Automatic annotation (TrEMBL):
The chain crosses the membrane at residues 32-53, 73-93, 105-122, 142-165, 186-205. Its main location: membrane. Gene3D superfamilies: Cytochrome c oxidase, subunit III, four-helix bundle. This is Probable cytochrome c oxidase subunit 3. GO terms for cellular component: plasma membrane. It catalyses: 4 Fe(II)-[cytochrome c] + O2 + 8 H(+)(in) = 4 Fe(III)-[cytochrome c] + 2 H2O + 4 H(+)(out). Keywords: Membrane, Transmembrane, Transmembrane helix. It is found in: Cell membrane; Membrane. Residues 31-206 form the Heme-copper oxidase subunit III family profile domain. GO terms for molecular function: cytochrome-c oxidase activity. It is a multi-pass membrane protein.
Length: 206
């Protein structure tokens, strides 16, 4: 037997008992990501304009900021962070086949979204009763515009969370339905991310 014939082949094989790793893919549909990046670009421009005018009249913006109740912002931040954690856990539950658990987690995330809306409505009512409306000054104009647009996204996100619940009721879901679930979850995480930027900009930055 020649030396070459005695050499073992170098064919790759998977060790017994181990699964072949799945190929990584972008979660959700491509169209959802186009929408998310476009939406975040609009908000980024709005944040830039706000910071520009804040720099032009720092004294007025700082005085107006003192009229905000930071407790509302802190509570809403904790609520949205909790909701995002619930959505992530729900997706893992779906992949593991625990659909009933996934639905309960999504209901919890929706409850957090409702708490956010109620909290924001109370804050708006408090500010309006103090005579602080969009026409008061530039700071409150941006306050209502940014938080109002974000509130609209929370409402849309709640509708998408409900859509996720309806998908988990299906005994069988194809790849497309799974991507719908991931896309809706990504939108909700974007809503969370936007608030994490809005909160310090309006309530904390001096």
């Amino acid at each position: 037997m020649t030396k070459g014939a005695s050499m073992p082949t170098t064919a790759k094989h998977t060790p017994a008992g181990k699964d072949v790793p799945r190929q990584r893919h972008l979660p959700g549909e491509e169209g959802m990501w186009v929408f998310i990046f476009g939406d975040m670009t609009v908000f980024a421009m709005l944040f830039g304009v706000y910071l520009y005018y804040r720099g032009a009249d720092t004294a007025e913006f700082n005085q107006s900021q003192l009229l905000l109740n930071q407790t509302f912002g802190v509570v809403n931040t904790l609520v949205l962070l909790t909701s995002s954690l619930l959505v992530v856990t729900a997706l893992r539950a779906v992949r593991g086949g625990a659909l009933e658990l996934a639905r309960r987690l999504l209901y919890g995330a929706m409850a957090c979204g409702v708490v956010f809306i109620v909290n924001k409505a109370i804050e708006y009512g408090e500010k309006i009763s103090m005579g602080l409306v969009p026409a008061t000054n530039e700071f409150f104009m941006y306050f209502y515009v940014m938080t109002g647009l974000h509130l609209l996204h929370v409402v849309i996100g709640l509708a998408l969370l409900w859509f996720m619940v309806t998908l988990t009721r299906r005994p069988v879901r194809g790849e497309r339905q799974q991507r719908y679930l991931e896309g809706a979850a990504c939108f909700w995480h974007m809503v969370d991310l936007l608030w994490i930027v809005i909160f310090p900009l309006l309530y904390l930055v001096k």
